[in-house]
Each structure stands twice: as structure tokens, then as C-alpha cells.
Amino acid sequence: MPRYERIDGADRTFAILVNQTGAPELLYFGPRLSGEADLAQMAAILQPGQRESLPDHPVAPSLCPTNGFGWMGEPAISGVHDDADGAINWSSADVEHTSNGLEVTLRDDRTRLEVRLSYVLDSPTGVLTSRMRLINHGARPFRLHQAMSVCVPLPAWVKEAVSLSGDWSREGQLARIPLSPGLWSQTNRTGRTGFSGSTLMAGEPAASDHAGRLIVIHLAWSGNHQLSIETLASGRRLAMAGAHLAPGEVVLATGASYETPEAHLCLSETGFNGVSDAFHPFVRTRILPDAAGPRAVRRVHFNTWEAAYFDVDETSMKEVAAAAAAVGVERFILDDGWFAGRRSDSSSLGDWRADPVRFRHGLGPLIDAVRALGMDFGLWIEPEMVSPDSDLYRAHPDWCLHAPGAPRPGMRHQLWLDMARGEVRDHIFDQISTLLSGNAITCVKWDCNRFMFPAVSAGAPAAGRVVRGTYDLMDRLRAAHPSVEIESCASGGARMDLAVLKRASRLWPSDATDALERIRIQRSAGLIFPPEIIGAHVGPAPNPITGRHLPMALRARVAMFGHMGVEADPRRLSSEDRDTLSAHIALYKRYRPLLHSGRMLRWRTDDGAEAVISLSRDGGEALCLVCRSDTAPEAEAAPVMIPGLAASASYRITLHEPWPAIASRRLHDPAAWRRGRVISADILSQAGLRLPLSDPMTAWLVHLERV
Ligand code: GLA
Question: For the purposes of burial, counting CB atoms within 10 Å of the CB of 672, is it exposed (0-12), middle (13-18) or buried (19 or more)?
Fold first, then answer.
């Protein structure tokens, strides 16, 4: 007899059945079903009839398909015992209810493999967390080839995959891929989360910012992984996500187990904004470390990278710090270049002590100066790396990942330390811990600037163990220094995921600080991550990566919609730009409680301007940014419809100044805007607000306050 089990959240139901062959199937994941819903009847009416040219027994897509007994698609688990055949067939399935979750235990009596699938539904947000544990009870070692964190059949309305691929300084390029029979997959072998991230979306072709259905899977893992959708000949589609394993990477001795990373799944019925509506509160309440949770005040950062690159010393950094404090910065972060002999990217990683020439008396005098200016102090480190030209490498040449007897190819002239080895982690822990104990440091920017190759430790493939070693190091440092925050960076946005975010308070999404690039990058990152953890800095003009000269108001306004910071050298700004910057830092501080707890919606206006709004949870206030990068084809911009306001309320609207210079000449009745207008929510959402938005690089900042 099939069995049926369900878990319900506030708005979602997750239901499974264990079929007559003992395989668990997803019966339903969608809007909450009534308590009376008859799951057996549901299964009966959804059951396809038997067709020609198929196995004699029904082989439905299970939650953990394996090959060998009629399932011809991708397996969620595959592997082989030494001297055995590799065919896996679940002979029994037990289901247990856990706290708002289900745990399904599958056993194969022949191979003596056991799998525990765990599903937990976060009731308020509807995000489902899935993971799997595989235990080898067999007498021989089991060589695991594939173990997915989640495997789910997709609804029939899914017609396309939506990926967020990227590269250095080009993170978050959204691409829609129509699905056709076969396997679509995004495999990451870089050893980090990767520039393309670890989020897979699948949806209706019509899914837009505000409308349409999407299934989203985020894999919480900072290493190699595979996200895939397979379309079978029958038309059924399955999505899978899990760590990518190299051959021989996981070999389970008798009694040993492998636990996958967690995958988080949500269904949106309101397009891309529905995805962030689920994930932002989930991240705020379930993922972020307490100290980085919703009550944390995100101080305005100044980061020295684009202001000075490697050229940092005590005297010049004290000057920069004074200029940064004068524009309102609250935290000064000394980026690369501060440690033992580091003058470029070619040396010194691993020697985590202040450079004796540039910081003759250590970091203390600079930190004291920064604190005297009312700021706190943060420091850049890259703990997992070693330069061949370093004392650490000279003392321990075999502490890096390497294949014995093979060359040690560099990337950015550096090698990856073997974080799978306890003694290596202990050494780095001691160095960083000493640095944190001896100096008043409140945050570290934890960087990771190369791909992991060869991912070999002690002569065996080890990519996953190295990632887990890094988590262990982060956890130990956090335990020893609980007040120190971690910002996760990897050549920009190559380590942004919900596993690192259990340890970090902030993510650096890209080295591109160009505001026009940032609109796209923050939009993509903002699907999963709430704005307060996405570092957003005001860069210099011309921008060092794109060469664009963008107005300060645009740069500052875009940065306000993340965790705001500055990288442009404040000493070199014109006095007008400095004033504009400090005015926007003041605005950021004023609106920070709203921006960092509100509901954030993004959309493209009817004529292609980019808009983002942060709405307070009680509907009392909102801050909206509308900007355009290029010249619009038509001179008269389309009205901007403002979503998410409290129906039947009216709002006092302020168009924050400075208004975009050229555009503001075409603003109708500017005096009336200056006096202030009160407009009802239905007019704002249905008729819209006509802002002059046809010129390039135009950014309007609109504040709405309920009256
Ligand atoms: C990486 C980071 C940058 C900066 C440099 C320093 O590229 O993404 O922000 O910290 O390293 O070398």
C-alpha cells in the first residue's frame, strides 16, 4: 500500500508518497492544501497510464533515483562497492516526522547502503531545506560518484532554466535557456562557489519581475557543484543540485557516511520578486549568524583597494582615514598590501604580520588613528593562500595543494593551502588569531583569489574536504573572536552562498564598482541575498574596470541600496563630489533601518529604466531608486508604477536632491515637487509617476511616507 506524508507551512505544502516499490516520490510542492485534501486521490488522478516500450513495473521519478533497475535518467546517487556491480535498488523506505520536516530512510538490503533524505519546511517563508546522508553498511569500501542534495521533479509549467552565469567583474548575467529533451547542467569545478553562483531557477517563460511561476534551488556550498535539469523523453523534468565529486574523492569505509550540503528550495508565484520575498526573510532569520542578523547596524565602510591598491602605508592611510571620516564613513578597512613585503600580487601570502617598512610600529598606530576619528577598523586577509615567495612557503613547501611529482601551476602567482590538513589550519588559525587578539579589529575581508587546482591532498582528490576545512577554520576563528565580522570575497563575487553566510555577515558581490554594472549585479545577487549583506561601494571616476565617468549622485544612490561603502579616494574628489557623497552617506544612515529590514522589489519600468524599492513591513515608508543607463528611444519617459504600497493609503513624496541635472530641466512643475506632494497609493501604482527619465545616467531617488 502506498503511504502519503505531508508537511505544511503558512502558505506551502510539501507532500510525498512512498510507492508500492518502496521508492519515495514528490507528490506535491505548492500553495498550501486544505487539511482535508485527499493525497491518495491526488496521486491516483496524477498517475500516468502505462505506455509502450517501458519497464514492466512503474518507474516514476523518485526523490532519490538510482540506476540499475529501470530508471534511465540521471541518478541522485551513484557509486560502486569495490568488486561489486554498482546497481542500487531501495528495498525499504521509512518516513519519520521531525520538527516541521520529514526524514525518509531508504535501505538497499543487497548493497547495504542506507540513505536518509531530510526535508524541513520553514513555515513563514515557505523555503524547503533538503539534504541527504549516505551510510555504507557494506563490508567493502563504497566509491561514491554522485550524491545530490536535492532531486525534485518539476511541474509541467516549467519550460526554461534561468541561470546567473558570470566571470570576474561580470557576475550575475541572467540567461534564459529553453529546455528541450536532454540534460542541461551548470557544473562548477573552480573549488569556490564560482562567479556563476550556486542558484538554479526554472520557470514559466513568461516569468517576469512581478509575475509568473518559478522554482528556485540554492545550493549552500562554497565548492564544486552541479546544478541540472534533465528533460526525459516522456517530457518529465527533474532538477538536481549537489556537490560535484571528482572520481575517488569520496570513498566510504564500512560504517562511514557522507553528508551532502544543504539545498534550499522555494516556489514563487510572483516572478523574480517572489523569490526574494521568500529568501530575504529566510536568510535574515535562519541563516545569518546572530550578530549579523536583522538588528545589526551596517556601518558605512571605506575600503582602501580602489583608492590605493597595494600602495598602503601608515602615513598615507591616516590621511585617507581622516578624509573618509569627514564624509561620514564609520569603518575603515585596510585592504591588500599591508603585510610582510607585499608590494604586488606576487609575494607574501601566508606571512600575516604587518610590513615592517610601511607599518614600522605594526598596525596599532593606524588603528588608533582610525578609532580616534570615530571609526572602527577592518583588515583584508586571504588565509587559504600562500605565495611561493613567502616565509611560509619556504618553511613548508608541501603545505599547498599539489599532485606529488607534478608542476604547481599558479594563478595570481599563488597556491592554495591544504585546508584538509589539521596542522595547516592550526598554523593559519594561530597567525590570524594572534593578529585579531593583538589589534582592535572588528572585521576581516576574507578573500580567495584563485581556482582550486590541482585539488589534491595527500595524493588523493580532496576538493570537498578542503572546503570543509575552510569552514572549520572560519568557525574556529569566529568562536575565538566572536565580535569579529567576516566579509566573504573571492576575486569579487565567487564565494556567495548560504553556507559561507552562516559564518559571514557580508558578501562582496563583484570587483566591478561601476554603478551601471552594479545595478545588474546587485539585482542578481539580490534574488537570494538581502541588501544589507551585499557590499556596495562608491568607486572612483573614471571607473578602474570599465573606464566610465559616472555622476557621483548615481554612484552613491546605487551603493545606498546595498551595504554602503566607499572605495574612491575621498582626498581626490572634487569638493562638489565630496559634498554629494557625504549627503548620500547621511541619507543612507537615515534610511538604513528601512533599507535593511524592508521588503525589496525590483523591476524594469515600461520603457526599460531600472527601479528598486525598499518598503517598510508596515507600509509606512518606502525609498525608491529609478535609473536609466542609456538614452531612451522616446523623449517622453513612461510613468513609473510604484508597487507594494499599502492600498488605500496616501504618501508624501520627496524627490531627493540633487536632481539629475539635465533631466530635471524637464520635470513638470518643479516648485510643486519642492513643496511636496501627497498622492494616493492607487494613483502611484496604477497611473504612476512621470519622472524625466530619458537621458543616460539618470537616477531619481524617491522617498514615500504614509500620511
Ligand atoms: C580581490 C578582491 C578585491 C581586492 C583584491 C586585493 O581581487 O576582490 O576587492 O581585495 O583582491 O588583492
Answer: exposed
